[in-house]
Amino acid sequence: MGSWLSSVPGGLVSGAIVGLIFGVLFEDPLKKLLRAGVRRLRRMITRSAVPLALGREFRLGPLHAPCLILEGDGTHVLKPERINVLVNSVGVQLPEEMARWRAEIAAEQERRRSTGEESAWNGAMYAVEDLVISRSGPNEEPDVTLILKHSDYYTFLATQRLDRRFPGGATPRSLYLDGREPRQIPDFMRSSFGINMAVVTADNWLVVSRRSPRTATGQDMWAPSVNESLSPDKDSVDGAPPDLFRAARRGMREELHLEDDQYDLRLLAFHLATSLSQWGVMFLTRLGAMSRAEFEAHLSRGIEDGWEHRAIDYVPLKPDSVLRYLLRSDRRNNWTPAGPALYYLTLVNTYGRRQVDAALGRVLHDLS
After folding, report:
1. Whether pLDDT at 42 is above 70
2. pTM summary value
3. With contact defined as beta carbons under 8 Å apart, do 4 and 181 qualify?
4. Percentage with pLDDT > 90 across the chain
5. H or E segment to which residue 44 belongs
6. Residue 152 lies inside a defined structural domain of this protein
């Protein structure tokens, strides 16, 4: 498996992508083409990069979030043309015991459907096979290549039973996550890729969502404004690899009923929720003309996936206000992993790192 953060010459990654396009023009079979492209890309990856250090999860004073920012600092946005997504068209394989857990989940959901109870649909999902980050050009701008495999929702649910014990006493967390670098985590334990968005209204109010108790993970916790999973069914147009920006726009339509021309979309970071082994990206979404009052009225008229939000708070998008909100005693320990990091990066993108960290110093001084 390639290094998760590798020093790769930009021309090599570009050459791999050009190779894939060349193959398409000559009508190679899709599966053979994608597998060859993934192998070719991996051969080009430098193997000598220093492993990513553990213990770098996000911190704001007393707030410790199990979220590792893999790329992005909020100051600079990641450009769409520098994001490449490849799909290795094979599925992840669960170990025997976890495959039995998945079968239990499938049987329980079928029982629920047969009795008219609420049940989960086993939708297709993506697992992360590799994430390659390189630098190119005089400004050393990041080039990101995300390589995906296929998984499904029941596999994801089985792998999220992180503290269930195997017959020998170990758990998925102790066996596959604890003490491991990101590159050492098996692909079946990465059976999701999330799109997380911070929404800011035209009059500078940050929208903060509280997750519903009905969601698969993060139940009843405070979270990013919008959360979506990358979907092969919804995001792979005509079988092509998914576009992360297009997937984010789908999330905005489904959760907030907002169309593409109503906001500006900025990709701030790639991240890993270390406690859950959930991978994803962080976007900042700024509404062009809709004020807070107009946004609240808009939501009151109905949205497709409104059930995913138990509550919504509105916070002035000012460094002191947002940081105090993040560190409130009734919030500090009730955040999903990505929430605090995304909102901090949103502040940095708006005001700059120095001004935000100066505000953090004031807030921490007051708390102490």
Report:
1. no
2. 0.84
3. yes
4. 73
5. helix 30-44
6. yes
Give the single-character DSSP code of 326: H
Q: Kindly state whether residue 3 falls inside one of the protein's structural domains.
A: no
pLDDT digits (tens, 9 = 90+) for 248-290: 999 999 999 999 999 999 999 999 999 999 999 999 999 999 9
Query: Quick check: 18 pLDDT over 50?
Result: no
Phi, psi of 264 (to 5 degrees): -105, 135
**HEC string for 190-239:** HCCEEEEEEEECCCCEEEEEEECCCCCCCCCCEECCEEEECCHHHHCHHH
Q: Which CATH number belongs to the domain containing residue 155 in this structure?
A: 3.90.79.10
Q: Where are the alpha helices (DSSP H) in 93-218?
A: 96-114, 153-159, 172
362 contacts 320 by C-beta, under 8 angstroms: yes
Mean pLDDT, residues 109-120 = 93
CA 208/CA 222 separation, integer angstroms: 7
Q: How many domains does the chain have?
A: 1
pLDDT at residue 5, rounded to an integer: 41
Do residues 89 and 34 make contact, with C-beta atoms less than 8 angstroms apart? yes
Other CB atoms within a 10 A radius of the CB of residue 174 amount to: 14
Which residues, 6 or more positions from 242, have their beta carbon under 8 angstroms from its beta carbon? 85, 87, 126, 148, 230, 231, 232, 235, 236
Instruction: Give the domain range for residue 336.
Output: 10-367
Residue pair 176/183 in contact by the 8 Å Cβ criterion:
no
**HSE (side-chain half, CA atoms, 13 Å) at 82:** 20
How far from chain centre, in Å, is Cα 320?
Answer: 26
